[in-house]
């Protein structure tokens, strides 16, 4: 007599649950680091290869300007032709949109150079059509050599003038604070707009570093002692580069800057009212800005900068200093490090 084969007790599949049906979580793939020694040119071929005609013309122009070409080589990372040259000091000047000279830094650098008696750190420069040389990152070295009575300095001369607008990435002489970065960026934007650039503001995201610096730069131009560090975080979290030609983008940012200055006027009034009530903290303005910031309750939620400024202005005009308690101000961590620099 045939028997019916019974399935093993655990062979029956359990019904799928929601968790079981869910796909496995994606693992974030780490970007693979390039293999050591796999990128760029080997050291032995930096002087090899043909010299492009535009580089030959630049070398000839440097000699005509009273300088000397010490070497023409290809840079080891991107193989771009570069000239190591001696330039007459009186032909070199900083880019006009660079940050202001730090007297203390220039004097300290001059003292050090005078003591060691050797100029070891070439500047970066490019040649202007009028035979002048602009440096985006050598202002203090240039000034130090002038103070020492120098006649020449050594430069890495690049054929591409776009390097002049990559100042924030190239400047390694002295750390920038928020004010210096913002002023440089807005000066660069004006220079590019005046030169007739029809490119959009967003196309200069590398040169400008972050959109907040453009608006802050306009505020610093109007008010040199503006407390930009207090608002930097708010703008950085809400602002974005504009898809508008630079002249139009600057007009839009000027309107933003006016509203930010209006907000700052009210924040200053609130801080004065708090001080009149006996609050003596040096962090009153950062405290007020933090209380007005609508992003503090929106974890991960985006908000456009115009909406942020609207809400902050409304909150500032409705701010009640009578509801502020001493312990609230005591918890304020103080202004950003850049503002204290």
UniProtKB/TrEMBL annotation:
Superkingdom, taxonomy of origin: Bacteria
Low complexity bias locations: 14-25
Region annotation (Disordered) ranges: 1-44
Designated name of the protein: ParB N-terminal domain-containing protein
């Amino acid at each position: 007599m045939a028997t019916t084969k019974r399935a093993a007790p655990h062979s029956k599949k359990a019904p799928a649950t929601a968790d079981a049906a869910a796909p496995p979580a994606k693992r974030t793939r780490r970007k693979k680091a390039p293999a050591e020694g796999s990128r760029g040119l080997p050291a032995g071929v930096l002087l090899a290869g043909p010299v492009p005609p535009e580089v030959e013309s630049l070398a000839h122009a440097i000699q005509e300007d009273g300088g000397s070409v010490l070497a023409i080589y290809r840079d080891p990372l991107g193989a771009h032709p570069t000239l190591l040259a001696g330039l007459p000091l009186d032909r070199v000047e900083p880019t006009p949109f660079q940050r202001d000279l730090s007297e203390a830094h220039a004097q300290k650098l001059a003292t050090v150079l005078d003591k060691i008696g050797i100029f070891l750190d070439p500047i970066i420069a490019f040649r202007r059509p009028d035979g002048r040389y602009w440096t985006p990152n050598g202002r203090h070295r240039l000034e130090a050599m002038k103070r020492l009575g120098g006649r020449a300095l050594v430069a890495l001369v690049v054929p591409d003038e776009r390097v002049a607008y990559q100042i924030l990435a190239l400047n390694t002489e002295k750390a920038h604070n928020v004010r210096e970065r913002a002023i440089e960026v807005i000066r660069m934007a004006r220079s590019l707009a005046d030169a007739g650039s029809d490119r959009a503001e967003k196309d200069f995201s590398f040169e400008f570093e972050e959109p907040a610096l453009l608006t802050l730069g306009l505020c610093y131009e109007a008010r040199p002692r503006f407390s930009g560090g207090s608002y930097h975080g708010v703008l950085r979290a809400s602002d974005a580069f504009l898809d508008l030609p630079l002249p139009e983008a600057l007009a839009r940012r000027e309107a933003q800057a006016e509203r930010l200055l209006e907000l700052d006027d009210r924040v200053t009034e609130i801080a004065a009212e708090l001080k009149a009530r006996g609050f003596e903290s040096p962090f009153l303005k950062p405290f007020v800005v933090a209380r007005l910031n609508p992003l503090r309750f929106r974890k991960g939620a985006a908000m456009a900068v115009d909406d942020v400024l609207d809400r902050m202005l409304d909150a500032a005009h409705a701010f009640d200093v009578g509801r502020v308690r001493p312990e609230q101000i005591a918890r304020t961590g103080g202004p950003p490090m850049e503002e204290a620099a």
